[in-house]
Design a protein that fits this description.
By secondary structure, the chain is an alpha/beta fold. The chain has eleven helices and nine strands. α5 links the parallel β5 and β6. It is globular.
Length: about 270
């Protein structure tokens, strides 16, 4: 079996490869990257490295040649119209390369979103389904580290986190958990035609977040709601489904997702260079 991974040296791609190496021989894994020179650490593990640029269609079919499974990690471009065009090129190249199974990192409960991001993912899913290639949609929840946009350092320093009024609840997960689940799907058979909602099975709230921050910092962090707060993240959060849950990821991983407490501890450690 040959597994080809696009965006292989990105944050999620790197973690997927780490997990795959515990399940598959290195020679069965091929990493596709835009800058092969930056993937020396991947190549050093015995993994094949191929040039792959979403904006250079001629590179794609060559990169995907011989792929039994193509792990298609969505583009990171900031413009969703550009992203969709890139995705269409990848799907066409996968058809030309006669890829046997395409797995795509989509967005959790994508039909319920009302922004260009969710529409882009939904359009990509439909294009993949229309291609005739057997597929699996890996609908990733929002990463828990989105909390960095809330100003954690300021909240800790000032003893107060300020959020927009509302009763938001969150189904977020860590990249590490997603990578473990995705690697399991990639290394197994029987997932064709499936769409997995890769979310937490239990929700958390801002009240729980400040409680966890208080525990980790040893100081009380209060929560205050303010409808005058200017932060793009709240508009974004209100236009996606952050509160629907699924047990898909836990079943695939064979364990519970990482808790909010442990996730925040890791985020704080990384922020402090620990």
């Amino acid at each position: 079996m040959s597994v080809v991974i696009t965006g292989a040296n990105g944050k999620l791609g790197t973690l997927i490869i780490k997990e795959l190496l515990t399940r598959l021989p290195a020679e069965q894994i091929i990493a596709c990257v835009r800058q092969p020179d930056s993937a020396q650490s991947i190549a050093a593990q015995g993994i094949g490295v191929r040039f792959c640029d979403y904006d250079q269609p001629e590179s794609l079919s060559v990169a995907f040649a011989g792929a039994d499974k193509l792990m298609f990690i969505s583009s990171s471009h900031h413009d969703d119209t550009v992203r969709l065009s890139q995705h269409e090129r990848i799907i066409e190249a996968a058809k030309k390369a006669q890829v046997q199974h395409i797995l795509y990192t989509s967005f959790a409960y994508v039909e319920r979103g009302s922004i260009s991001l969710t529409q882009m993912h939904l359009s990509t899913e439909r294009a993949i389904a229309a291609s005739g290639i057997p597929y699996t949609f890996l609908r990733n929840a929002l990463y828990t580290d989105f909390v960095g946009a809330l100003g954690l350092n300021s909240a800790i320093a000032e003893g107060e986190m300020v959020v927009y009024p509302g009763a938001l609840k969150f189904n977020t997960v860590t990249r590490e958990d997603l990578a473990l689940g995705i690697a399991a799907v990639l290394s197994e058979s029987g997932h064709e035609g499936m769409s997995y909602e890769l979310t937490a099975s239990q929700l958390w709230t801002f009240d729980e977040l400040v409680e966890v921050l208080s525990i980790h910092t040893g100081k009380r962090i209060a929560l205050r709601q303010d409808n005058q707060i200017q932060n793009w993240i709240f508009g974004f959060l209100n236009k996606i489904d952050t509160s629907s849950t699924s047990t898909d990821l836990e079943k695939i991983m064979g364990r519970p997702v990482t808790s909010l407490k442990d996730s925040i501890q890791r985020i704080l450690e990384e922020a402090n260079g620990s």
